[in-house]
Write a structure and sequence with these properties.
The chain contains two helices and four strands. By secondary structure, the protein is α+β, with helices and mostly antiparallel strands. The termini are far apart.
């Protein structure tokens, strides 16, 4: 079984420095946890960011490594409010049985 993590938060200030800190933290986490993350920004609200980590095998180990990387890069200093983390059980993709286009 695999898990997908979605972490969202608001960036309070200095988006350039926040970007460097978050990307550095994500790179370190990727090396330690073996899971490459993606950083997203909401289209109509660029201060709302989301980290996506897919295919996590051991959720408990991943959460510990994520917490460690966050502390090392002091990401919290750039945030306006808490980070919210959601963990979903990864499922098989849905396949569509579509008729051929005419």
């Amino acid at each position: 079984m695999a898990f997908n993590f979605y972490v969202w938060y608001r960036v309070a200030r200095d988006e350039g420095a926040a970007d460097l800190a978050v990307r550095g933290m994500m790179a370190r986490l990727g090396c330690r946890a073996g899971v490459a993350g993606r950083l997203l920004r909401k289209r109509d609200e660029p201060g709302l960011w989301m980290e996506v980590y897919e295919g996590v095998v051991d959720a408990d180990v991943f959460e510990r490594r994520l917490a460690q990387a966050l502390d090392e890069f002091d990401v919290e200093m750039f945030l306006d409010g808490p980070r919210r983390t959601e963990c979903f059980i990864a499922d098989m993709p849905v396949t569509a049985a579509c008729a051929a286009p005419r």
